[in-house]
Amino acid sequence: MSTPNAEAGGLAEPPAHSHNIALFFHGFFKVVAIVWYWICTIVSNSFVVNFVVCIVLLALDFWTTKNISGRLLVGLRWWNEANDTGSAWRFETLPEGVRQVLPREKRLFWMAMMGAAGHWILACVIAVFGLSSYIIVAILGLLFSGSNLYGYFKCSREAQADLQGYINSTSSTLMQGAITQKLNTAVGRA
């Protein structure tokens, strides 16, 4: 049996298949680390146990996101190389046609990444105001999730274009609002 593309003389594009297991663990480790962060004092009174469990969960999330889910779900990969002259970040995007990214997986990947980073920012703010004694865990959670978010953002030309479009539209809207306000003020004086 042949595909329509093969009959037309073109190469048949490989069908995209879902990576449900990678998607599950991409969210699972994030959720478990966040939930543990908030309930750990209920489960155990030992700071050391709570700290170690939280850091292990954050490390599992970081490793899974960096090495597996980013590559499978959105076709992006980043790493840091260290040598005698220093270190350098490396970013890689699979070329178009090599891997077809499913829109649902891409959307869930980015939502989980931004949600986790947002949570850890909020956790840091709450910890600064003294409502949590685990500020070091919140800072490490922000560092882990923030570095993954930064790395994948730098890999994704599409995410950079989306952000640039958002900045342009927002600045354009702000400029239009400022000009309109100035004109209304000038007309009001006349």
From TrEMBL:
GO cellular component: Golgi membrane
Keywords: Golgi apparatus, Membrane, Transmembrane, Transmembrane helix
UniProt membrane topology term: Multi-pass membrane protein
Family matches, as Pfam families: DUF846 (PF05832)
Family stated for the protein in its record: Belongs to the TVP23 family.
Role according to the record: Golgi membrane protein involved in vesicular trafficking.
Protein name: Golgi apparatus membrane protein TVP23
Protein species of origin: Tetrabaena socialis
